[in-house]
Specification:
Layout (H helix, E strand, L loop, with lengths): L1 H27 L5 H10 L7 H11 L6 H13 L13 H36 L4 H15 L2 H15 L18 H11 L1 H27 L2 H8 L4 H23 L1 H6 L2 H6 L5 H10 L3 H29 L1 H5 L1
Length: 328
């Protein structure tokens, strides 16, 4: 296992460098640029230099006058020292802006992720064990409705009902009007109150696929020969399902759950935008739209690292839930 992990880590390093280079090339080819916007604003001031002169000056300042290969190597050298530069849009160090935004998305996504597992997997198992019953049909309809709902429509529906009609929640934002006058515990409760609707939106939109996925895999396992053998030996149905069948159902689920790890840090762009939550999804979108190459590079490379790490964790968890992998 140790050799396998080392081998995968070396492969991941090579893939990361390749992915980072592709991202850098795409960033350099963006049709919009924050530098162009700044240069255009400065050139319109009375007695200022021309747009072309400002572009040359700003490009030299931020290293954009170099070739792609030379610029990428320079970025890698600074990144290895932990220097990712300053964000062009937010005018603060990239890492500082990332830290401010990522934890909001992580807390929101982490809570939603745990709720999805707690709700979807048991319902998927119940639907599989009661195949073609009213319970199975009800769970299936709910699952189909959940992953068929557009995020913007469901979020707008929640805001209309709970914010406009009932007045239980604010329409958007992370903090309320009286946030500064609240105690420390009150401020935490205020933020938690503003995250209720976004978390509900994420859970409802995402549980449908996990419910159907769990049901499908559980049905495949329940039709296996060793399950029939376990029942023939006189084992209780509960032990057959939750000790023998569920353990093997976890094998394909591990892949999907491991691939979900980057989503905890990537944020939920549509949800954060609709609820005006300043998470990393919303911040990264604004950075990309404005051509903020330093922040976009850091964010996308960070997601690439998480994706590679999620795949590695999935492979390791395979060995935990499937003894055949350990034997191999």
């Amino acid at each position: 296992m140790r050799k396998y992990i080392i081998k995968r880590l070396l492969q991941s390093v090579f893939l990361l460098v390749l992915v980072a280079f592709i991202i850098y090339v795409l960033m350099r080819c963006l049709p919009t640029s924050y530098l162009e916007e700044v240069a255009r604003q400065k050139s319109m001031q009375p007695g200022s230099k021309s747009f072309e002169e400002w572009m040359q000056q700003l490009s030299a300042t931020y290293g954009m006058d170099k070739g792609i290969i030379q610029g990428f190597l320079g970025w890698c050298g600074r990144a290895l020292r932990g220097d990712f530069g300053d964000s062009w849009k937010w005018t603060v160090p990239v890492v500082d802006k990332f830290k401010d935004a990522v934890w909001i998305s992580f807390i929101m996504g982490g809570i939603a992720f745990l709720l999805e597992i707690i709700i979807a997997i048991p319902l998927g198992i119940i639907a599989a064990t009661k195949q073609y019953s009213k319970t199975d049909y009800t769970i299936t309809i709910v699952a189909l409705a959940c992953f068929s709902l557009p995020t913007f429509f469901f979020a707008s529906l929640l805001k209309l009902l709970f914010s406009v009609r009932l007045g239980w929640f604010d329409l958007g934002g992370l903090i309320g009007r009286n946030y500064e006058q609240l105690s420390a515990a009150g401020q935490i409760a205020d933020k938690a109150h503003h995250l209720v609707l976004p978390i509900i939106t994420l859970v409802v939109i995402n549980i449908g696929y996990l419910m159907r996925y769990t049901r499908t895999n559980m049905l495949e396992v329940l039709n296996a020969d060793y399950i029939r053998t376990a029942r023939a030996k006189g084992l209780s149905e509960r032990k057959v399902i939750y000790h023998h069948a569920f353990r093997n159902t976890l094998i394909p689920l591990v892949t999907m759950l491991g691939a979900s790890l980057p989503g905890l840090f990537s944020g939920a762009l549509i949800t954060e935008t609709l609820y005006s939550i300043p998470g990393i999804g919303y911040v990264s979108y604004q950075s990309m739209v404005s051509g903020d190459i330093p922040f976009s590079m850091f964010y996308l490379v960070f997601l690439a690292i998480l994706t590679l790490l999620g795949n590695l964790i999935s492979d390791i968890l395979y060995a935990v839930v499937d003894p055949r992998v350990r034997i191999a």
